[in-house]
Amino acid sequence: MKLMKNALVILAGGKGNRFGGDIPKQFRKYGENNFIEHLLSNILPINLDIIVISCEKKYISKYLNKIGKIVKDTKLIFSDPGNTRQESSFKALKKLKYYKPKNVLIHDSARPLVSNKLLKTILLCLRNNFVVVPYIKYNDRMINTNQAEMKNIKNIQTPQGFNFSHIYDAHKKFKNESLLDDASLIQKLGKKIKYIKGEKTNLKITYPEDIKFFNLLQKTTYRYGIGFDIHRFDLNSNKGLKLCGTNLPYSKLIGHSDADVCIHAICDSIFGALSMNDIGYYFSNEDSQWKNVNSKIFLNYCKKLLIKKGYKIINLDINIICEKPNINKYRDKMKKNLSKILSISEKIISIKATTNEKIGFIGNGKGIASEALIHICNEHNY
Ligand code: ZN
Predict the structure, then answer these.
(1) What spacing in Å lies between the alpha carbon of 312 and ligand 1's midpoint?
(2) CA 250 to centroid of ligand 1, rounded, Å
(3) pLDDT for residue 381
(4) How far is the CA of 317 from the centre of ligand 1 (A)?
């Protein structure tokens, strides 16, 4: 068996009664991820050999099916929770005992914002200490406390780091007593604890209002996507052209759907920003259900994807490349349409037109090309 040096236990067996809701808060999605996914994405990669998640079995397949992809090569196991935090923690340690880890970090899933840096610091301190506990001090004055007492008040956080056999033995010894956290067991044994500076941002989310702070502390991720499309005119027609959902009195474009070249380019830019496949993958031109359909359907699908994945559009820049028709007259209408379909302000949409200087296929008036560049960011408004 591979030598297991560092283990992480994530306690996710809580019901979250103070938070409320149908499912425990740690399994609910906040943007693309639930708390456990947020937590693992924040802390990995780190030098961990094994992760134990303590949670009820019924939640694993439903809410934790993405975890394997996040933890990659780190071994992942699950452990049933107990009736109390202490019981859950001991059950997880019992499972870990088989792997003989040297160190174990025990963490609450209600603290999804802990940094990779804090975990690294705790692991580093465990080289010379058996127990390492992060703490913070609040700036607010406390009543019923004198100055001297104030100095000693520490607000304890997780993850708490332990030499595995130390914490295992402490749990065994106090298994019939109920203590607040793992460090309290060590304290009761009278063993030395190394306190290190924690992080104010390592917030414990207990009440619904705490989500406001969680939102503020989220990192903003910006993503960009480009899209390009080109369609040929049906020069036998003199009407039916559609650009950005707007009808123009000019020859229609040939395509499987309504051939709205601009909307196709915008869809591809959104798929690109979300690191997905191209429009043809989702709306194949061999699929009869998309024959002659309004391309608004495709754009609406993309809008829903953005919402589902927790992103909002910051800017949309579109180029239309053709000799004819003149786009100027229709620009405002086009913006209005896109703004309506995507539920974004017209102010963040730019529609620019250019000719191809009479060069090539487009220059000869045989078709229209369009390109779109989209700029999105994750929305923290859960
Ligand atoms: Zn197209």
Answers:
(1) 24
(2) 17
(3) 57
(4) 17
* Ligand 1 centroid, distance to 310 Cα (angstroms): 27
The DSSP code sequence of 227-261 is: EEEEEEB-TT-SSEEEETTEEEEEEPBP-SS---H
What are 162-202's pLDDT values in tens digits?
999 999 999 999 988 888 889 999 989 889 999 999 999 99
Structural domain that includes position 248: 222-378
Ligand 1 centroid to Cα of residue 259, in Å, is 5
Q: Which two tokens stand for residue 274?
A: 């979300």
Tell me what percent of the residues of the chain surpass a pLDDT of 70.
99
What is the number of structural domains in the chain?
A: 2
- CA of 372 from ligand 1 middle (Å) equals 13
Same domain, residue pair 203 and 290 = no
CATH number for the domain that contains residue 194: 3.90.550.10
How far away, in angstroms, is 316 Cα from ligand 1 center? Answer: 18
Q: Is position 186 within any domain? A: yes
H-helix segments, the chain: 35-43, 57-63, 67-71, 85-97, 116-125, 147-152, 164-173, 182-189, 210-217, 261-273, 279-282, 296-308, 331-342, 360-363
Predicted TM-score (pTM) of the model is 0.68
